[in-house]
Write a structure and sequence with these properties.
The structure is a homodimer.
Chain A (H helix, E strand, L loop, with lengths): L5 H12 L6 H11 L5 H13 L4 E3 L7 E3 L6 E5 L5 E4 L17 E12 L1 H6 L12
Parallel strand pairs in A: 3-5
Antiparallel strand pairs in A: 1-2, 3-4
Chain A binds a DNA duplex through helix 3.
Chain lengths: ~140, ~140
DNA sequence: CTGTGTGCAAAAGATTTGCATTATG
DNA sequence: CATAATGCAAATCTTTTGCACACAG
């Protein structure tokens, strides 16, 4: 059975209050400020478990680290090719799953969609940015 | 200037003849059979360079290793959540880029789309498969 | 010849895991 | 008090990189 630990609720709260689609590393650093004894392994375990249970959403990009999102309703993301940050893409899209129903004997369960581009901040500076802030695109 | 080396053409040929969206590891193993002296670093360098020059396509939206595809026309993929293999998803989709033009000051350059599900082989066996074959879904 | 590409091994980065210990229910 | 979760460190997995040498143009 699943237990409520301080570490788990801190992990969830960190993803919810950091509004920037943080990586595990960023979540870890945020929690360390109030709970310096937390370990990175615990953060990873809790992030995965929270994603599994549907409390948060895991955004995987193979290229670099995974990001985590506290918004669980259906929406899409866009990543900046310059700074690597992930933003919400506020667009209405057709339901792609209906395009692939019943084809090839494959049991379809969903899809990942990630738009790519250059965020306003990077466009303005025309150079790579390593900041961890989250300006609105 | 770019040079034609045996290793580079072997890398391209391996992606083209392995019809299974191989990972770098699989490409490396395939080449080693005819060219045992090739190194993994060279395979990675060549795969990235071939993807950069548009000869092959790098597929990154999976957890785990990147896959490479010799088909360069616009099409989509589906990955099996059980065995991790990547297949072509033969579907016609609306052009998603038109949904996101000019929003938020973000300069959109494209998108990655990956369907997820369970392939016929894994559905049949109801268990994890580690094979590197590529049965038609 | 010039400098790009290779092979090797080490390094880097993200994530997982084994294990003894802690603390939740 | 049973056992899920933690902290720590080591291990794993994928990919990149530094460097001396080889070879394509």
């Amino acid at each position: 059975m699943q237990r409520n630990t301080i570490q788990r609720s801190l992990t969830l709260k960190a993803v919810q209050t950091l509004r920037c689609h943080p990586t595990a590393e960023q979540v870890y650093n945020a929690i360390k400020e109030t709970c310096p004894s937390i370990s990175k392994g615990t953060v990873y375990r809790n992030l995965n478990q929270l994603a599994e249970s549907g409390h948060i959403q895991k955004i995987e990009l193979t290229d670099g680290a995974a990001h985590f999102d506290h918004r669980c309703h259906k929406h899409y993301h866009v990543t900046c090719l310059a700074c690597g940050r992930v933003f919400d893409a506020d667009v209405a899209l057709p339901d792609l799953e209906r395009f692939i129903q019943n084809s090839h004997g494959f049991q379809f369960l969903g899809y990942d969609l990630m738009f790519k581009g250059i965020c306003p901040a990077c466009s303005a500076s025309s150079q790579h940015s390593d900041t961890t802030e989250n300006p609105t695109p």
